Amino acid sequence: MSLHPDLNGRVALVTGASRGIGKAIALTLAEAGAAVAVNYHSRAAEARRVVEAIGTGGRRAIACAADVSDSGAVAAMVRQIEVELGAVDVLVNNAGIGIARGLDDLSEADFDRTIAVNLKSAFLCTQAVLPGMRARRWGRIVNITSGAARGSGIVGVHYNASKAGMEGLTRGYSTRVVKDGITVNAVAPSLIETDMIGGHREERAARVPLGRLGTPEEVAQATLMVIGNAYMTGQTIQVNGGMHFI
């Protein structure tokens, strides 16, 4: 058994892949051989640059504009991918927002939008690709959650709830599709060097036992690892520099 996943002939969809962790995952899956659908919401130019980088490496890629919290947009996106690249074999639910709010500032609209983008989107995209995966009896689904799913976090309770929900979704799907040859796992990064981390980087890095923030590429490496392991399902892999052990 090869320790390096071979994704030649596979098609991957990475949501929220125009920058940060999603971009790193898209590039890593392409390096492993996959054709990649780079989903984005509003950053078209950045998504195109990811597609160009993948093409430079000799792999196929397309940019797919879609609000993944909208069922109609998700359905249209999956149809586009099937026409231009083929059926989706690997789904990485990475799209997410982090609206920083304190308890006294958190609005119902903030809560609803966070749940829709971070959690509902994972449900919609999973439901859209599952029939094909089940028919082919092979699929890999990875949900990018957060250490905030099991800790207090720095964004707010709405973010905690959305990421904890993703972990519940991961476990629920995993038991129901494992006999169809599909694994469903989660990767939970904490304090990664992306735009979402905001300011106070040195202060936040000091909270990490390793002494630095993580990189998007380290999250992508963990994602590729769970995609390559056919025996692992329903698990959450922590990528946090030793911040906590759960």
From TrEMBL:
Per the record, the similarity remark reads: Belongs to the short-chain dehydrogenases/reductases (SDR) family.
Gene3D superfamilies the record matches: NAD(P)-binding Rossmann-like Domain
Taxonomy, superkingdom: Bacteria
Q: Name one Pfam family in it.
A: adh_short
PROSITE patterns registered for this protein in UniProt: ADH_SHORT
Please name the InterPro entries in this protein's record: NAD(P)-bd_dom_sf (IPR036291), Sc_DH/Rdtase_CS (IPR020904), SDR (IPR050259), SDR_fam (IPR002347)
Q: Does the keyword Oxidoreductase apply?
A: yes
One record GO biological process: monocarboxylic acid metabolic process
Please give the organism.
Answer: Vineibacter terrae
What UniProt keywords apply to this chain's record, in alphabetical order? Oxidoreductase
Q: Which PANTHER family match?
A: 3-OXOACYL-(ACYL-CARRIER-PROTEIN) REDUCTASE (PTHR42879), 3-OXOACYL-[ACYL-CARRIER-PROTEIN] REDUCTASE FABG (PTHR42879:SF2)
The UniProt GO MF terms for this protein read: oxidoreductase activity
Specify the protein name. Answer: 3-oxoacyl-ACP reductase FabG
